[in-house]
Request: fold
Amino acid sequence: MVTAVTERPMHEPGEGRAPYGESEIRRWVRGSADVISANRDFLTQLDAAIGDADHGINMDRGFSAAVTDLDASVDLPPGELLIRVGGTLIYRVGGAAGPLFGTCLRRAGESLGDAERFDGEDLLKAMRAGLDGIQGLGAAIEGDKTIVDAYVPAVGAFERALRAGGDAASAAHKAADASREAARDTVPMQARKGRASYLGPRSVGHQDPGATSAALLFAALARALDGER
Amino acid sequence: MSLGATSPERRRGTIQSVDRAARILKVLGTGTSRMGVTEIASRLGLAKGTAYGLLRTLEAQELVEQDPETDKYRLGPAMLQLGNAFLDNHELRGRSLLWADSLASRVGEAVRVGVLHGSHVLIVHHVFRPDNSVQILEVGASIPWHACALGKAIAAYLSEAARRQLLESAMTALTGRTITDPGALEVTLLATAEDGYAFEDEEAIVGEAEIAGAVFDDMGHPIGAIGVVGPVERLLTDGEPASTLVAAVRETARGLSRDMGAGRARAGRGVRS
Reply:
């Protein structure tokens, strides 16, 4: 999962001409809020089958609050921005998704540190830190029918694309594709974590809402790095 | 809740066709609720003709039904009646209805009643958090005993042998905070018996906590538990349960125990045999 240690000789976050900064993070948070809002009812419907029927509503509320928060936070480095947004998600999303996605962003933000700029390698490291945060809280592994199922393949695809010489934006598109597919692959799984696991075999046959949200956030990341909103 | 009880090899003294029919019902009880004869036959390793005969028989009893458009089978209406009959005949559930309602409205949180079923707690009653939000009924849910307060409340008062068996069962982590170490759980159970209530802190679901008290019968045996479940930030402060909630849960568990025939002293404390 998160075993491979990336070799990054002579490079610290933000050094050189790292292509991304605060504006990409802002675009990503806004884009995430948009795509979550557009899929609000879909996510809630997925959750109604195996959860508490509030995932879409909670995520939408949290990301709207995150955007408001973003507008009030000026002149923050990317990492600080992420930490802030993560904190907002923890408190405003609630349920299990709040702490999981919120901690993910906080860890990712801490990984970016206080550098003004970041590149693909920094982002990969941040993604992994976020995944560690999620797994620390939820103890989920691949196959448990959770966020992790859509997250791990995204990180893998992102890293492979970078190693193949791609830029971070195209790698993020590969990550988004892998994540979307992996979220769909949660359908036949039997949940082993979260409220859905209480249903035992009845959780089979439904797409996991958490994994679906994760895939939407990776899609928003790809668009943010493209420079679109 | 699990298909685990259905071993493909027949147990001695059981009837093969009944065993197969029961396995068909359980397969149809998974989330993939509609299946064709071929799929059912292959899932259970049966000849298609055999599966078809069994399905026709179950259909005649309305235990399964066939979708007229797709020809696929799903569980039938008689299953709902049977499920309801199970709940209606459940004495603890029946007697807990009013207690659970009044506890939920008193504390403003969801309330669940559960019984031990193997190494899991089976939820037999669930009152929604009284805030008009959409919630999903958890009756029928099955939660590993060690991850929920209901399970710990019951386990604390079981006989030494029964408790040992639970502590020796395979325990998985449902979150990063689930306690799976038998020694640590044993310490928790001792504290539970001493305090008269159990709690869990994000051990079953991230973001949720539960406070529960055991319910006793006239012999002083723990027959189940009743508890309050909700967002960790409302139930616990610095990892400790709010005292008002503890008082409400304990009073409710005591009252329900008396309804179940437990004597006054036992209803209050239970006996740890």
About this structure: Residues 5-11 of chain A have pLDDT under 50 and may be disordered. Chain A has nine helices and no strands. The two ends of chain A are 30 Å apart (CA to CA). Chain A touches chain B through 34 residues (CB under 8 Å).
